[in-house]
Amino acid sequence: MKDYIFVEEGGMDLTPFYKNRPIMIMVVITILLIIMMILTAGDRSSITGAENIIGGIISPLQGVMYGISTGISDFFGGIINQKDIEKEYATVKKNESALILENQRLKEIEKENKRLKDLLSFSENHPEFKTIGAKVTGKNPGNWFNVLIIDKGSQQGVSKDMTVVTDKGLVGRVIESGLNWSKVMCTIDSRSSVSGIIERTRDNGIVRGTNTMETQNGLCKMIYLPLETDLIPGDKVLTSGLGGIFPKGILIGEVKEVSRQENELQKYAIIKPSVDFLHIEEVLVTYSNVEKIKVE
Q1: What 8-state DSSP symbol labels residue 155?
Q2: Among residues 138, 152, 165, which one has the least CA distance to residue 287?
Q3: Closest Cα to residue 193, out of 234, 235, 245?
Q4: How many CB atoms lie within 10 A of CB 274?
Q5: How far is residue 176's CA from residue 296's CA, in Å, rounded to a whole number?
Q6: What domains does the chain contain, in order, with CATH numbers?
Q7: Residue 293: its pLDDT value, please?
Q8: Which residues of 205-232 are buried (b: 16+ CB within 10 A; e: fewer)?
């Protein structure tokens, strides 16, 4: 776009005036505002004619200037408020995350206290046993706890063939013991064998685990039962005390079904363990000989 040169009659160049027209307007407005402030200074009940004329010119300009200044103030104020809101939101989210973690921690502590309280009830109900509390720190691969590792060993008084229980009943026995750890074979393992007795009928038999590498059902099988036994589902199975490893009277589980062995004059029963072998976190190692227990 070409620049135009404005020349007043007589040859005077007016281009600089038109180029600086916005600045000139601002200067005039400023001067008028100053005059208005001087004329309205003081406490007077009436104004002069000149003040009326100037006021009429200035008032609309004051409104425009006020609107512009207010808009600018609101704009920057909004930016500042938005930053404050974002900062407060970030703080709230951080506090919320901390509260969620703390709530989860407290829930875990509450659950652990409940489990430990239940274990304590076993000790209170069986004063004939000395017990050592232990946490499960490892297990065999798979869903079931066939073999597990606990955090107590010979330094805490744990030795091979000690009985391991929970408040629900028999877990198994210690098969290895290190200084601060022990390995426990559970009753559902196919290599496990426990002498059991039916609480109602007093029939004796051997309870063996059925879990193998190929088969995992978490059940036990009680064999060598008399043919004339009248077992029914729901009958309780306890440790008999025979064999000298497991103390007498610890709950193993209950009868699920009864069958007769083929070509045998005996029956067998499928036993559902009383312990939840899918979820074990704490156990008690028990022993009846007080002198062999070394308190940690």
Answers
A1: G
A2: 165
A3: 245
A4: 18
A5: 19
A6: 130-292 (2.40.10.350)
A7: 41
A8: bbbbbbbeeeeeebbbbbbebeeebebe
Q: How many CB atoms lie within 10 A of CB 11?
A: 6
Q: Give residue 54's pLDDT.
A: 57
**Burial of 108 (C-beta count, 10 Å sphere; 0-12/13-18/19+):** exposed
| Cα torsion through 85, 90, 95, 97, rounded to 10 | 140
Dist CA 230 CA 255 (whole Å)? 12
Please list the alpha-helical segments (H only) found in 48-198.
49-125
Q: Hey, which bits of the chain come out as E strands?
A: 7-8, 12-13, 130-139, 147-150, 163-166, 169-177, 182-186, 193-198, 204-209, 220-226, 236-239, 251-260, 266-273, 282-287
Q: CA-CA distance, 287 to 33, in Å (whole number)?
A: 102
pLDDT for 287:
77
First to last CA, the chain: 97
Sign of the CA dihedral 81, 85, 90, 92? positive
Report residue 12 CA to chain centroid gap.
86
What is the rounded CA–CA span in Å between residue 127 and residue 217? Answer: 33
For the record, the structure tokens of 140 come out as 């065999």
Q: What is the pLDDT along the chain (296 residues), one digit of tens a residue?
A: 455 554 555 555 555 555 566 666 666 667 766 665 655 555 555 556 555 665 555 566 556 666 666 666 666 566 667 777 777 777 776 777 777 776 776 666 766 677 767 777 777 777 778 889 999 999 998 889 999 999 999 999 999 999 999 999 999 999 999 999 999 999 999 999 999 999 999 999 999 999 988 888 999 999 999 888 899 999 999 999 998 899 999 999 999 999 887 667 788 999 999 999 999 999 999 976 444 444 33
